[in-house]
Design a protein that fits this description.
three-stranded antiparallel β-sheet; 2 domains; globular; 17 helices; alpha+beta
Length: 423
């Protein structure tokens, strides 16, 4: 009887509290489920840049290369309950789809914030970097490498307490127009829509340092403890404070560029290396020297172990006929010094795919800030021009042959640099 009386009197009270918004927080979307479309309302240019970035394409739904490997190793990215062969939650989602990883879901099309991969809130809720190695020595990768916050983290602080008195909007958008600011602790109305309160605080010690990147880009090993991605270990820790964002998020027109160009960005690839050739005739030979200088504070190429660079060196006559070349096609076998790659091997010293590699082979990539000279002796007869070309590949040659369904722009070599000498 007492329970019925309590229910009778309390139910209307709870309903009234709900109507007046006392429980509105329960109905609000968790910050990690907020789509980048919400941020677009004020940050149009940043959104446009991010939308074209690999961060926005990082999920297995949108990145054909990652999606291919995910399908082979894990399963369908639109299905719930997908697990690794060891019966564990897919570790790759901690980096490629961190918002889904936070909810322990594998159905990546369930919410826009999952399908968006590394979206706005995925980075801007990282509060503290804890490192990629846990107390027990096990890797803590991606989202697990951080303490996250329900409060957005920004690269610098801004006026909050007294902002309303000085500026009714509390700030301006990246297009210079004043907008109601949802980062001050209250929801706002914008273009006929209600944008929920998304408080923000300054966190420059994370957002303006490598800590913001290293959770995913430090290092990752396979189940046999063979390092696969190891940009953090390659990083040159010298006197010059060259951070990840120095190159990948340069300031332009007052904004940090959120395209975050890398191995898929031809402009970034061209900026990453100094490339030249010199060739002098001595007797019946052309003594030719190819010079490559890595301008990056990490190895080139870096990231996924199947990325590689190769040199094509060709001598032509006055009619454009090829008289000599360092290799017929890809130089992996004919001219190994012209092939810059990260070799993974099995127990029999045979080239192996990343998940099955048991040990490292030769690492012929350019190290951080390394300058390398390759020498060639070319028959000089009738040579009118010697041309050197540097190409970047996202995949090993054997993977290009295997993954025939991938778009050609992902499997075709990308020209990084060219230099030539005329006679």
């Amino acid at each position: 009887m007492r329970a019925q009386v309590c229910k009778f009197f309390l139910l209307p009270v709870f309903c009234m509290l709900w109507l007046f918004g006392s429980f509105s927080a329960i109905a609000e979307t968790p910050i990690h489920q907020v789509s980048s479309e919400t941020c677009k309302a004020c940050h149009k240019e940043i959104y446009k840049q991010w939308k074209g970035s690999m961060h926005a394409q990082s999920s297995a739904l949108n990145d054909p290369i990652h999606g291919t490997f995910y399908g082979m190793v894990m399963g369908d990215p639109t299905k719930e309950g997908v697990k690794s062969k060891k019966g564990k939650y897919p570790v790759c989602l901690q980096c490629h789809t961190p918002n889904a990883a936070k909810d322990k879901t594998t159905k990546l099309d369930a919410k826009p914030a999952y399908a968006e991969g590394v979206n706005c809130v995925a980075c801007h809720t990282l509060a503290e970097y804890k490192g990629t190695t846990g107390k027990n020595g096990k890797p803590t990768l991606g989202l697990k490498a951080y303490r996250t916050s329900s409060v957005l983290q920004g690269p610098q602080g801004f006026k909050t307490e007294f902002a309303v008195e000085d500026d009714m909007f509390g700030g301006t958008a990246d297009d210079g127009d004043q907008k109601p600011n949802p980062h001050l602790g209250k929801s706002v109305e914008l273009d006929g829509k209600t944008i929920a309160s998304m408080p923000m605080e300054g966190n420059p010690m994370l957002m303006k340092t490598n800590d913001a990147c290293m959770g995913c880009h430090d290092k990752r090993s396979n189940s046999f403890k063979v390092p696969l991605c190891a940009t953090g270990d390659e990083y040159f820790k010298g006197k010059a404070d060259v951070t990840c964002t120095s190159c990948h998020m340069p300031i332009s027109n007052g904004l940090a560029n959120h395209e975050m160009g890398g191995g898929h960005d031809i402009a970034m690839l061209k900026r990453s290396v100094i490339f030249s050739i010199s060739s002098k005739k001595q007797g019946d030979k052309l003594n030719t020297v190819v010079t490559m200088k890595n301008k990056q504070p990490h190895s080139l190429p870096t990231g996924a172990p199947f990325r590689n660079i190769y040199l094509k060196l060709t001598a032509y006559d006055t009619n454009g006929k090829v008289l000599w070349q360092n290799a017929n096609g890809h130089p992996a076998k004919e001219d190994p010094q012209a092939y810059l790659m990260y070799e993974l091997l099995d127990d029999n010293d045979v080239h192996a795919a990343p998940p099955m590699a048991k040990k490292l082979g030769p690492d012929t990539r350019l190290k951080a800030f390394e300058t390398r000279h390759l020498t060639y002796s070319i028959p000089a007869k009738n040579v009118a021009l010697v041309r050197g070309e540097l190409f970047y590949n996202l995949l090993w040659p054997e993977l290009v042959k295997k993954f025939t369904k991938l778009p050609k722009d992902l499997t075709a070599p990308m020209p990084m640099a060219m230099s030539e000498v005329k006679f």
